[in-house]
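Friendly challenge for the regulars: who can give me the structure tokens for this chain first? No prize, just bragging rights.
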Amino acid sequence: MARYGLIGRSLGHSFSQHYFTAKFKREGRSAARYDLFELAEVTELPDLIRNTPGLRGLNVTIPYKQTVVPLLTELDPVAAAVGAVNTIAIHADGRTTGHNTDVEGFRSTLQPLLERLSKRDTDIRPRALVLGNGGASRAVAYVLRGVESIRFASSAATAPWATSRGSSWTAPWWACVR
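First reply, four minutes later:
Bragging rights claimed.
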């Protein structure tokens, strides 16, 4: 049986197991299963992988999107640039590859909005404030850095990933919001 799952510290809020169980059923994947794996510490991951037969992939949630990185064999280029992982592929030989699909999810949501804005005759200059300093915030900042028309700041403004490319903002984030 192919097994997949979600790792995090507290997973009572998660709808992932229900979502993927229903998805596997719709797709006729009766040999696939999705479980929730609550880990008290991220360092429990190697044992989970070693002791869970058929485990092929994991989603990663709070608070492990960044702390899981050193435990993985490799990262795809986007995950390496972001410094956070939300998906782990587990290969037959035991290698693990971290991916960050939050980047594409946010980019695909933002792009149509920017396209609509560019078609208007307006002087609106989009700005953004990224709240938080976790893995999802890093993914959002990564996407925003690639969009020259959007200036942004972060509540984690001391982090090197937290401001627009070429930004001269030195004030605290709350002073940058206008």
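Strands lie at 2-8, 32-38, 55-60, 74-75, 87-90, 96-99, 127-130, 151-154. The helical segments are 16-26, 45-51, 77-82, 102-118, 135-145, 173-176. Your move, everyone else.
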